Amino acid sequence: MIKMKIEKFKIEYYDEVVELWRKAGVEVVSSDTIDEVTRVLNRNPDLFLIGKVQEKIIAVVIGAFDGRRGYVHHLAVDPDYQKVGLGKTIMEALIEQFRTKNIQKVHLFIEKSNKSVIEFYTNLGWDVREDLIMMSYIPDKKLYKRHM
């Protein structure tokens, strides 16, 4: 069994985390710049977690709280460490942080085509919502870019 240490994210880990996201297949977009990640970190410092094995970051998850609901973004586990329970471990740590804030409901977004991620969260007890449609609006098209 692999022992992973959970810590709060620090901005000095930014480059290593972006590299991990890319390695794990998370699409890095303009909302993932160092400035944007710093904004999330400043707003939710205790919900942005990393997992380390021997000081190497092998897992990350961004938790967010808007004052009413919790959100999960960019969970990633290094492909060399997947399928051994580390994604579940870091999610359990995040859920515990949500509990300490008395957050009643947590949401996340998954592309419909990403069946393995849907299965991962379903196995953790998450429900697929068939009653909702997610919609997005980009207020300033010059700011948001899907590809960096």
Reported CATH architecture? 3-Layer(aba) Sandwich
User: What is the alpha-carbon Rg in Å?
Assistant: 15 Å
- The helix tally amounts to 4
- From the N-terminal CA to the C-terminal CA, the straight-line distance is 36 Å
- Tertiary shape: globular
> How much of the polypeptide forms β-strand, as a percent range?
15-25%
Number of strands: 5
General description of the model:
The mean pLDDT is 94. The radius of gyration is 15 Å and the shape is globular. 30% of the residues lie in helices and 21% in strands. The chain has helices at 14-24, 34-43, 86-100, 115-123, and strands spanning 5-8, 48-53, 56-65, 70-77, 106-108. The protein starts with a strand and ends in a 25-residue tail after the last helix. The longest helix has 15 residues, at 86-100. The protein has a single domain (5-108), classed as Gcn5-related N-acetyltransferase (GNAT) (Aminopeptidase).
